[in-house]
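Forwarding these from the shared drive since the link keeps breaking.
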Amino acid sequence: MSRTVLFDLDGTLLNLDIEEFLRHYMRLVGAYFSHVAPPEKFTRAIWASTNAMIANLDPSLTNHEAFAAHFEPLVGRPWEEMWPGFMDFYVKEFPRLRGLSKEDGVAFRVLSQCSRSGWNLILATNPIFPEIAIRERLRWCDAHEIPWKFITHIDNMHFCKPHLQYYEEIVRVCGLDPSRCVMVGNDVQEDMVAKSLGMKTYLVEGLVIDRGGGPEPDLRGPLAQVPEAIEKLLPL
């Protein structure tokens, strides 16, 4: 079976401080929806509903459905009325956050090399955003035209990181052999947990997130060394 490389996005391919990004994102989305609810109330509802979505392990609910079920009563407006507004936000306002990403071209070079090697590429970002927002962030590191085999997002996934079910779903949907996969990410608890499923793991240094007690990565180093690491971790 061919080799598959799963890449996290924020802090891995994107040279982006996720905490800073989320602060600016919440400020922007709160202001955009100020006609629906006071910004502080609206952003509190987003945080609470995102946490509920991440905690959800009901396989009958997509992440979108889990978020909406929690969010609607907090804001007091039908979700069907608010969702088009979110789509408008991601088209009109979300691209303004691009300046928070400090790109140097490494992600594009690494992904292009992996693609030329014939490896399957999966964007294994935490699926808490809609596809439109994820594809916009891919533009920020020139990865939007990479031939991704699969991109996880809020509508096509039923679980979030750090749950192992997230990786199990990717394996099932994409028909993967975990022993022929490498998970590449910067978050010890969210990304390296793929090791429990039999995947190899590579921890990208630079913007490492480690809350303690996570699995030890098989290899670690800069993003630029990922192609060489794949050859070591998954020899032919």
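-- next protein --
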Amino acid sequence: MFSRRNPVSFLSIAAAALLAGCASKAPPPAAPAKPVSVVCKAVPANNPLVGVWLSVRKEKGVVGEMRTLFTFKSDGTMDYAEQLKRGRQPPQGLSESGCWNRASQTLLVRTTQSNGVPVDLNDPIYVNRYAIVSQMGKTLVLKGTDGTLTARRMPDGYRLPF
């Protein structure tokens, strides 16, 4: 009475319907992250952090000397340069720019460009906080997640040598 084909066709249709029912709809696309805009805020011209600060140190596990140059401007902008100097080899470096501000004993540095390229402002790696341990005369001591930086004030316009 029933042909052998009917049960197979019926089972195929039932399996397809079951699978279709189990399939979930793709989730709606996530809303794009709200763009962060950064506007640097001017600081008082007499702010003692305004100026050029150089830190030279050796780091454990790194061959050579790490040089870090912060330039804090009274308009709230900053330049940051880091250079690894190893003997006679050409130095390797990083150049960033952005904004800075000071709240009590905390220095906040926000990078907006790295090596001339705009950064993802939502990425927390581009925001650095330093505790200001001390600032006396031409010496600035900062404590960050990577340890302590001791910097000395340099003349305006000073740049890292290449």
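The helical segments are 5-22. Strands lie at 51-57, 65-72, 77-85, 92-103, 106-114, 117-118, 127-136, 139-144, 147-154.

- D.
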